[in-house]
Amino acid sequence: MSIAHRPRRSCLYMPGANARALEKARELPADTLILDLEDGVAPDMKAEARGAIAAALAAGGYGQRELVVRMNGLDTEWGHSDLDVAVKAGAHAMLAPKVTSARDIERLDAALTKAGAGEGFALWVMIEMPLAILNIKEIAAARIGSRLTAFVMGTNDLAKEYRARMTPDRMAFQTALQLSMSAARAYGISAIDGVYNDIKNEDGFRAECEQGRDLGFDGKTLIHPSQVEEANRIFAPSRHDVEQARAVIEAFADPENAGKGVLKVNGKMTELLHLDEARGTVAMDEAIRALA
């Protein structure tokens, strides 16, 4: 499954120190599980959480879910051990916090190589610091020749650093979200939206998912299993979108339309750029169906 078409609609954080949560995660329909060793684990529980994650990964049973370990920073006392465990225990990717420059990507990539990470092991990074937003183009460009695969927006940390209010429209973060999206798309990187904190506010969560989808994000990071189903629905192509995409593909494949750059499909003016979009929509729909 290609990176571009791998479903990442729901990326659920699971605290590494909670063995019961790690067990339950095997039954959850999340596309991606982020096994957390950073913010979700107290300092005196880091070693225990690392061992629990290693044991859970070794035991397997997670099916086709993408397994990502969120490490502590390389400059902390836990970072290198976190990285080593994730590589050796069989995770698919490492999520690194608080990157601010291309140099951070280079250091992380080199550390993964030293730890024995194979070619298919991916690097995800948190975009959660003001300096990361200012340097977002160079961070994204560091993907070339590295394992960098995904940006994860850390809106809670951005709010803290900005001293900004978390309003329903996320006005304070629109520039950061859009710049990060632009950089991700320019360099072929997946982009995952930040978490929604008010677990019981279903309408608010739904609205924020819709906003993230409208901005172009591939999916959303989640803090509770109850958020998975709605994120999966919102970030998946709708039945109407898939039907229209198939109609576009069929229209351009019709020999009578050979050489045409613009067609009318189901009453809509459709160009070749829409054909590329349609192919992506169908590929994503098929990838989602393959997970079921």
Give an overview of the whole structure.
- This protein is an alpha/beta fold.
- Helices cover 46% and strands 16% of the residues.
- The chain has twelve helices and ten strands.
- The protein has helices at residues 19-24, 46-59, 79-89, 102-115, 130-134, 136-141, 155-162, 174-186, 202-215, 228-234, 239-253, 272-291; strands spanning 10-15, 32-36, 66-70, 93-96, 122-127, 148-153, 190-193, 219-222, 262-265, 268-271.
- Strands 1-2-3-4-5-6-7-8 form an eight-stranded parallel beta barrel, surrounded by five helices.
- Strand 9 (262-265) and strand 10 form a beta hairpin.
- Helix 2 (46-59) runs parallel beside helix 3 (79-89).
- The two termini are 15 Å apart.
- The mean pLDDT is 93.
Measured by DSSP, the beta-strand proportion falls in 15-25%
Uncertain stretches of 5 or more adjacent residues: none
- What is the helix content? 40-55%
Q: Indicate the structural class.
A: alpha/beta
Largest sheet: 8 strands, parallel, barrel
Basic shape: globular
Please tally the helical runs, counting DSSP H or I stretches of 4 or more residues. 12
Over all CA atoms, what is the radius of gyration? 20 Å
Termini distance? 15 Å
Series of H and E elements: EHEHEHEHEHHEHHEHEHHEEH
What is the tally of beta strands? 10
Order of strands across the widest beta sheet?
Answer: 1-2-3-4-5-6-7-8
Average per-residue pLDDT, rounded, comes to 93
